[in-house]
From TrEMBL:
UniProt keyword annotation of ATP-binding present: yes
Name assigned to this protein: tRNA(Ile)-lysidine synthase
Domain characteristics, as noted in the entry: The N-terminal region contains the highly conserved SGGXDS motif, predicted to be a P-loop motif involved in ATP binding.
Source organism phylogeny: Bacteria, Pseudomonadati, Pseudomonadota, Gammaproteobacteria, Vibrionales
The reaction(s) this protein catalyses: cytidine(34) in tRNA(Ile2) + L-lysine + ATP = lysidine(34) in tRNA(Ile2) + AMP + diphosphate + H(+)
Chain ranges passing through the membrane: none
Species per Swiss-Prot/TrEMBL record: Vibrio albus
Length: 441
């Protein structure tokens, strides 16, 4: 019986008062999870549960799938929501990877402190993931495939069916007369995972019936080895990383090639970056770390860039061009900033050590911008005025952040750069700029 297994796993990880969120695609795996979660809700009525269906818009059936998921949730007595996402489908972008990334970004919005996100991967999915990692030539981390539980945003991602075979999942659905949707793309063997599912794994299991269990054990052994390696290097890595998240180039130079490659992988893993292969690690070292001292090197990866600045390596997420973004302040009303930069507010509730300015005159409008072009400022602690570009250099602001710091403008004059300095002509104690960066992704 699947429910006792499901219930025991949830009770192992779920904390009282925290929400359980189900990623509901509508396929048989998540459909079974929905049924199991509804039973768990009946046994634990105080537990808040929510099903989230992500609408990718890739199929002509996408609207129907969303309606079906909503109806199943309604019939099960569970709350549900549909998240619509837009995919960036460029010529060099993997549809699978982009859909996965946007799906998890959408799901993360519903995860608060201590919440659980349930996904429907099972034992056969683990086998496919292992074989895909093997095809890519992955090391222990890649071959460790998917863990049963992992941190996710402010909460945890849990795969309660990971040790259950696909056959048992389908049997459960049929025994309980559950209906589900079939994504037509699942039969398209141009996708590597579908090719494995349709042709390779069935032949392997026919020849060796226990191979999926064996693969699962190998994945766990790889995970154990990776965990041990990380444990042995964790203290060394902590000493290399500064308060700004950058990793010391000088410290990396003192390590062996094997150690520094693992340390770079561990550092990137803190940003949830897809693990670079051996070729990419070589490029990081030769083209970024070992570039000329006066260079501004960068290496672009699928999720962002690795850059060097003042003898440190930094991970930089993909950024939107927000140069032309601007908006006016209304006193004591937070303003949402673009591209995961949080929110900012101009308030007359002034604190002792806040970022304080004089009050605006009647003819002055106060607004926020990100375009530093042509701006000259005179920080109150400096003897002379300088172009903002030069001031950013003197304050040690990395190049990729120089169009990410909110510029507080009084009419066309810079009053201050949030978190950096106040201009001498606008110094005062009447209002305070409060920049809350906690909403950054």
């Amino acid at each position: 019986m699947l429910y006792p297994h499901f219930s025991s796993i949830l009770k192992r990880y779920h904390s009282s008062g925290c929400k359980i969120v189900l990623a509901l695609s509508g396929g048989v795996d998540s459909r079974v999870l929905l049924h199991l979660l509804s039973l768990f809700k009946q046994d634990n009525p105080q537990t808040e549960c929510l099903a989230v269906h992500v609408h990718h818009g890739l199929s002509s059936n996408a609207d129907f799938w969303a309606e079906q998921c909503h109806q199943w949730c309604s019939d099960s007595g569970l709350s549900s929501v549909v998240e619509r996402v837009c995919l960036n489908l460029g010529s060099r972008i993997s549809i699978e990877q982009e859909a996965r990334q946007q799906r998890y970004l959408a799901l993360k919005k519903h995860i608060q402190e201590g919440d659980l996100l349930l996904t429907g991967q099972h034992l056969s999915d683990q086998t496919e993931t292992f074989l895909l990692a093997l095809k890519r030539g992955s090391g222990p981390k890649g071959l460790s495939s998917m863990p049963e539980a992992a941190s996710f945003g402010k909460g945890m991602l849990l795969r309660p069916l990971l040790s259950v075979s696909r056959e048992k999942v389908v049997d459960y659905a049929e025994q309980h007369s559950l209906s589900w949707v079939e994504d037509e793309s699942n039969t398209d063997t141009r996708y590597d995972r579908n090719f494995l599912r349709q042709y390779i794994v069935p032949q392997l299991t026919e020849r060796w019936p226990d191979i999926e269990r064996s693969v699962s054990r190998s994945a766990q052994l790889c995970a154990d080895q990776e965990a041990l390696l990380n444990e042995l290097l964790a203290e060394r890595l902590a000493k290399m990383i500064g308060a700004d998240g950058g990793i010391s180039v000088v410290s990396l130079h003192s390590e062996s090639a094997l150690a520094r490659n693992q340390l770079i992988r561990m550092w990137l893993d803190t940003y949830s970056v897809l693990m670079p292969g051996r070729k990419q690690l070589s490029l990081i070292w030769n083209e970024v770390v070992c570039a000329q001292p006066d260079a501004n090197p960068r290496l672009t990866l699928s999720q962002g860039e690795i850059r060097r600045y003042q003898n440190r390596l930094y991970w930089v997420d993909k950024q939107q061009d927000i140069t032309d973004w601007r908006t006016e302040f209304t006193l004591n009303t937070p303003v949402d900033l673009p591209d995961r930069l949080g929110s900012i507010m101009l308030t007359d509730r002034v604190s002792e050590n806040g970022f304080k300015l004089r009050a605006a005159r009647p003819e002055e409008r106060v607004w926020v911008s990100f375009n530093p072009e042509g701006i000259v400022a005179h920080p109150e602690e400096r003897a002379h005025s300088r172009k903002l570009k030069k001031l950013f250099q003197e304050y040690g602001v990395p190049p990729w952040l120089r169009r990410r710091l909110p510029l507080i403008m009084y009419n066309d004059c810079l009053a201050g750069v949030a978190g950096l300095f106040v201009d001498r002509d606008f110094s005062g104690n009447a209002v305070e700029v409060v920049w809350d960066r906690q909403t950054q992704g």
